[in-house]
């Protein structure tokens, strides 16, 4: 089995991926800003990053933030990987990054290009949004007496553990380039998903659809972030909510 470094290995996706890789028999190193011994801020790089990639066969790059810095982080990671002779880098991206003019999507697309041009064998997997993200959004919006949602926008949420399983499969193989997208099992309107959240949490909120402006909103409204032809996910949003409720983690 191989030695695999997972960046963002303590995050929602990284935790599941790390567990799956270890179950498969790989030696796994976890890199994040606070995980020892490889506590690294990728935006700054440094000697600990070089130590983390030394002797690694494959890097799975899951670390990302909408607060900025992803491109610099990727440049530092790729430079360290080249110095260490890493043979394969797997990057997790988002469906529609090349079609939706939204700031975070543009950054993800820019990182894809850095990976492709790095000189390292690469694999890129794009997925639709995780169930966890929708839950976070609805929890935030649910603090108001009225739940405001962009009108005429749909989503196709996917279970994060299914993405972790696919990433583990890709990490265990060789560079495959841009692989087929992964989408959740259903394309749903945001308000229908929000109503499922409200039922699961027992909250009472009026759901109000608000028209927005701008190119990004038009792209989301057109479904440029969806992959209905790749609806390979199995777990539904309602099943995700039920599982979280069973662990006492919905509507906390």
UniProtKB/TrEMBL annotation:
- Give all residue intervals belonging to the NAD(P)-binding domain: 8-132
Pfam families in the cross-refs: NAD_binding_10
User: Taxonomically, which superkingdom?
Assistant: Bacteria
What is the protein named? NAD(P)H-binding protein
Q: Which organism is it from?
A: Streptomyces cathayae
